[in-house]
Amino acid sequence: RSVRIGDKMKSAGKDNKTDSLPVKTFVQVTAKPPRAHPDIRTGELLNTTGVKKKGGLHKVMNLDVTLKPRDARAPGQFGWAAEVPLDDLDESRRRWTEGYFNVFLSEQIPVDRAVPDTRPPACSESLVHEDLPTTSVIFCFVDEVWSTLLRSVHSVLNRSPPHLLKEILLVDDCSTKDYLKDKLDAYMSQFPKVRIIRLKERQGLIRARLAGAAEAKGDVLTFLDSHIECNVGWLEPLLDRVYLDRRKVACPVIEVINDKDMSYVMVDNFQRGIFKWPLVFGWSTLSKDLIRKNHIKVSDPIRCPVMAGGLFSIDRKYFYELGAYDPGLDVWGGENMEISFKIWMCGGEIEIIPCSRVGHIFRAENPYGFPKDRQKTVERNLARVAEVWLDEYKEIFYGHGYLHLLDRNIGNLTAQIQLRKKLQCKNFKWYVENVFPELDAPLAKAEGLVFNIGTRKCLVQDKGSLSFGVCDLSKQSQHFSYSWVRTLRQNTTCLSPQVTERGLALEPCDNTKPHLRWLHKSNKFLPEHLIADTHPQRTCLEAGSEGNTIYLKACDVSSSYQKWHFTHYYAQ
Ligand code: LR7
Ligand code: MN
């Protein structure tokens, strides 16, 4: 069985559902297929970081002590779907909200169940280096369900080569559940490699991961969510990539543990992590054409513009060289974008490794509370990421439903901006062009001449005042752009809907000032008008029928003197 993980499995905020967006197809960027090379993946080859070879190779350890389970007939064994007995249906429904999945059923399933080996066939025969680095596995959790937390830990203990597993760090982000205290301590004391770190205050997953990383002793940090099951042979392929180049950040394929019947479901091959505006994570399948032209095999690593966030291996020292996470990110969300942009723009690479597979319970809701409002928390995190990493592209982010964030206090960003300078990271334009050229990212919604239908003339800016004149594409004074944040601008000057004696006012652009915003094309009643957004009465830009004057007037659907058309429209 195979499913595609839809965007609905994960979206940054409830209002940002991308289910209805069309899945973008991958655009081939090179005319000729690149030479066959182990590192060829999506489209154009970036500067491939040096591949080093040290020790010898050996076959990946297909280690799984659970393959011959103690109780082959237990529910959910081998990753099969389990069923709730009729008598227990009520209880299983009642307990759903403890984790927003079938908590009752999860309890019936062995904590060390076997799962199907979903790797591409070549993986179990593949070679990895003998002297791989060790890893610390970090799980942070808040109020995680007992059975799933245990199953997560057991899957790591059972399916990781012991000499590579330095330790498992459980970071308790100030859980409120009693069973996560003494009972958890007692249970985990059987396993010398497992250590519990308790946070005194709720920090959110980002700072909780930082707390775990600070204690870690392994060469590589491997972060995992606390409701996962690692599959056979999951670890070595990840560590092997980091070993080849410490700037590679390796992610397993994330498979689905069904929230209703707890079955382990394989996902489609050739998926990579992408985002859509406003920074909403999603999956996209490589095109057949690209796969064919580049001879990409199912087991080849896939370059990823962004990672899902929860499951990845990164060289510990490299993680700190990159400045880890922005500690100003709260609770949940946005950190996957932050670390992805940071990795790519500052010299690293993100890959999905098909030979490494980990199941994850996708949940429709967060089973824990947010200390502050959920939506406000997530949007604040995203705005921090946009301000630090997106350069001029941040306007596209704000223009997709986040204009209200422009004048919100999102905390101090000095340290993050300094870090980006210190690391001499490339700009976002480079990222778009080289890592994610399929991203739809026009910098303006519309631009060019602003043609008035009534007078058949164009808007002109002349020595600080506005008028209109005979249209002439060669005159820079007639070039304007309509930005994502809805300003009407020429260079750094914006048209302000305030009337002065000389006409309309021009002001230095400032995205935080709502009075500089105009509505254009976004209103079905006045489609071609330029409407002063914050004026209490609807006022529109109008061209005088004589004398090349320009002024504001009550909007009138029928007036062609209020209709304006830009030369180019990039997006609606
Ligand atoms: O305040 C918190 N403190 C925590 O310790 C909130 C959460 N957590 C823990 C939590 O118990 C869990 O183990 O952090 C982990 C992740 O939280 P989830 O499982 O609620 O997140 P998610 O799976 O819905 O969301 C994904 O996006 C997040 C954005 O911040 C994180 O990056 C998650 O790690 C990430 N999960 C994955 O990438 C798994 C695959 C999902 C997809 C696609
Ligand atoms: Mn999760």
Automatic annotation (TrEMBL):
In its UniProt entry, the species of origin is given as: Ameiurus melas
> Which membrane topology term applies here?
Single-pass type II membrane protein
Q: Where's it found, cell-wise? A: Golgi apparatus membrane
Keywords, comma-separated and alphabetical: Disulfide bond, Glycosyltransferase, Golgi apparatus, Lectin, Manganese, Membrane, Signal-anchor, Transferase, Transmembrane, Transmembrane helix
Pathway where this protein functions: Protein modification; protein glycosylation
Q: Which cofactor does it need?
A: Mn(2+)
Q: Which residues of the full protein are shown?
A: 226 to 797 of 797
Q: Name one GO molecular function term.
A: carbohydrate binding
Q: Please provide the Gene Ontology terms (biological process) for this protein.
A: protein O-linked glycosylation
Main subcellular location: Golgi
- Superkingdom of origin: Eukaryota
GO cellular component terms, semicolon-separated: Golgi membrane
Q: Does the keyword Cytoplasm apply?
A: no
Protein name in UniProt = Polypeptide N-acetylgalactosaminyltransferase
Q: Which family does it belong to?
A: Belongs to the glycosyltransferase 2 family. GalNAc-T subfamily.
Q: Which residues form the Ricin B lectin domain?
A: 447-567
